[in-house]
């Protein structure tokens, strides 16, 4: 079985630049780099999907969260808060039952 070749982002960029700037056919790049054509197509797709964010000056990373990620974080915090409230009420309820009945 053939080992999968691992390339850095810079190496992928060089291959994509050659594809886009020099209009080298993907089949030629694939043979030259010993990479499957599907991988090159996937890199190209990812590049164009990320292009709007890059061109708008937004960087993807932990500091700049998307609206969905912010919404998820907010909802998770809300759930944690509710879980704490429920836990507090349950403990309080158990204590009250112990004091009234002498047992649970």
Give Rg in angstroms: 27 Å
Q: How many beta strands in the DSSP annotation?
A: 0
Round the mean pLDDT to the nearest integer and report it.
Answer: 85
* β-sheet strand percentage: under 5%
CATH architecture of the largest domain: Orthogonal Bundle
The H-and-E topology, N to C, reads as HHHH
Determine the N-to-C terminus distance.
Answer: 64 Å
Low-confidence stretches: none
CATH topology of the largest domain: Arc Repressor Mutant, subunit A
Q: In percent, how helical is the residue content? A: over 70%
Helix- and strand-based class?
mainly alpha
Largest sheet at a glance? Answer: none
Number of domains: 2
Text of the CATH class of the largest domain: Mainly Alpha
Number of helices: 4
Q: Which descriptor suits the 3D outline?
A: elongated
Structural notes for this entry:
- The chain is mainly alpha-helical.
- It has two domains: 1-61, Arc Repressor Mutant, subunit A; 65-104.
- It has four helices and no strands.
- It has helices at residues 9-21, 26-33, 37-55, 67-101.
- The longest helix has 35 residues, at 67-101.
- It is elongated.
- 1% of the residues are buried.
